[in-house]
Amino acid sequence: MDAMTIIVEPVLTEKTNIMREGETKKYVFKVDRRANKVQIMGAVKDLFNVQPVSCQIVNVKSKPRMARTKSGMRHGKTTPWKKAIVTLKPGEKIAAVDGV
Questions:
Q1: Phi–psi pair at 72, nearest 5 degrees
Q2: Largest separation between any pair of C-alpha atoms in the chain
């Protein structure tokens, strides 16, 4: 897999903003469901020119969804996805995600 296809997008929420503060920074990415820890760390290293120390992976399960339509209620689910929490070396940061 290519580094561009492994990392889908960064996850930007209040909780992930707090994780990026401090000396050791942790960045959260939505990644391809087939990718493993070694591939994710290599993709972060190639794309952002930083040295990742560790990677934690979470498989996010689908949630039930409902929508009201003219014909009644439609029931469905969201798509399951994989989340990776990447820890960088102290003092390093990813400028593209931080907005600097």
A1: 130, -160
A2: 56
Tell me how crowded residue 41 is: count the other CB atoms within 10 A of its CB.
19
Q: Which amino acid makes up residue 59?
A: N
First vs last Cα of the chain: how many Å apart? 29
Q: What is the DSSP letter of 45?
A: H
Model confidence pLDDT, tens digit, residues 27-74 = 999 999 999 999 999 999 999 999 999 999 999 999 999 999 999 999
Domain 3-91 belongs to what topology? Alpha-Beta Plaits (3.30.70)
Q: Is 41 helix (H, G, I), strand (E, B) or coil?
A: helix
Domain ranges of the chain: 3-91
Band (pLDDT 50/70/90 cuts) for residue 98 is: confident
| CB contact set of 15 (below 8 Å; sequence gap of 6+) | none
Give the H/E segment covering residue 7. Answer: strand 7-10
Q: Which two tokens stand for residue 77?
A: 């689910």
